[in-house]
Amino acid sequence: MKYIVWSLMIILLCGCASQKQLEELGLITAIGYDRVDDKLMGSIVYYEFDPLHPNNTKMVTSVANTSKEIRHKENLSSSRKLVSGQLRAAVYGRELAEEGIISVIDTLSRDAEVGTMVYLAVSNIPAHDLLTRAQESSDVTNAGTYLYNLIEQNVEEDSLISPTLHEFMQCLYSEGRDPILPLLNFIDNTIVIEGMALFKEDKVIGEIDTKSAFYLKLLLGPYDAGSVEIEIPLDQVEKHILSKNNKVEEEVYISLDHIRSKTQIKLVDKKMPSFKINAKVVTRMQEITVDYDLGNPEALKKIEEQISIMMEKKLKEVILASREIGSDPVGFGNIYRSKVGYDSFSKKEWRELYQQADFDIDIKVEILRTGVMD
What we know:
By secondary structure, this protein is α/β, with parallel strands linked by helices. It is built from 11 helices and 15 strands. The chain folds into 2 domains: 194 residues, no CATH class; 150 residues, GMP Synthetase, Chain A, domain 3.
């Protein structure tokens, strides 16, 4: 009995001590980095625990040569000790990201307080401006939490390639794959994802829009809950349209959701790199912009064929656009290395071979169910 009493007293005392400590801390939820002249500008959004003010977040900014010195300066301008244990998102301004962010991210990855599941992103406007506007917006109460939830729900819905610190570092130090991160902006009083930033090693060298990101996701992993809008030529399915409106249209737009996919990528020629991509896509048609005869098996087969053709075309465009700027976000280099062997693989040589690589794509689409028609 005495042992139980002492145990309860220790637990209660520890609870009181933790509460007091929490009230003395500034819990960092978001950080942003920009290049200012030859120095680094860091912006930190942190939360102060206060029962009377549940949304008490603040932001401090400083300029220094290193991220560690930035943290030291920011502590000097805060009444609370700033800690990184609750960091949710790190944002890098486009200008800095184009110069290279390895030194800043490497420091973040070595911080024992920071978890590897922190989300990373690039901002089309300076990260400082993005976080400042977010803090001033009535739609965003805490920039770090908002960014985390924004990215998290899009990752879970298969609309976005997961951009955690762990995954970025894994791609960065991979011999045959480049990182890719969400590209942010501040529009209509809130933070939005405009597309994906393509990297060559640790430098941003280009971008793709959110529609193109769908096709990269198709290659990088199986879909489980994705959605996409596809346009196909009207003349290819015209004979199966039941009634026509007065609009002059050249394309039919189809909304697909509940996408399930399985993709295989094989190297078929080592000397002149050639890859065969096979993808099986099972989906539900949610909406189509014409009065289409979906009850006709022949008509349904025709539209599946046209969706397959369009997906193959779009996927190849994304691959070739990435190849043209020298980014390999899919990891074709890793597939090539697995076949030729690590000792025979050179990252420099692969960069040259990648520019000559050929891609043969075959996508099979199966529509299991049809939904609303417009």
